[in-house]
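Bench log, entry 3. Co-assembly request; chain sequences pasted below exactly as received.
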Amino acid sequence: MKAKIKVMLKKSILDPQGKTVLHAIQDMNIGNFSDVRIGKYIEVSFNNSNLDSAKSEIDDICKKLLSNPVMEDYDFEIEEIN
Amino acid sequence: MKAKIKVMLKKSILDPQGKTVLHAIQDMNIGNFSDVRIGKYIEVSFNNSNLDSAKSEIDDICKKLLSNPVMEDYDFEIEEIN
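Structure output for the full assembly:
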């Protein structure tokens, strides 16, 4: 199976990296951009025949390893691949 | 509109950060994990009433600003939000 995980700063937390990229885009004079937020995207390949236990494993590693629960939110999808 | 952009190292390029996370997951003794790859996830909010021109704007900033085309591939979806 493959899990696709997104980890983003919580909405209430300022994202200076995103702000910097927003200013760079605005300096390029293309379009009308209002906000940029930058996070992490993680693809994990693993074997597990049971979808529920796969979800709980991925939830576990998101909480313990991939995100900082004080500042970040995570979200994932699991794809079954044969 | 909102663009959701993923930037990943090309498949042929080693991802040492991903390897480190893979070893950390394996040390936790949960499940049977075989690969981890880490990239960036970027959400961009902007105004554009035309979907085709929105796509070309986002493609432009991905090429010029958000990815390194020598080492990275990008991929995006655009959502219309009112």
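Chain B has a mean pLDDT of 94. The first strand of chain B starts at residue 2 and ends at 9.
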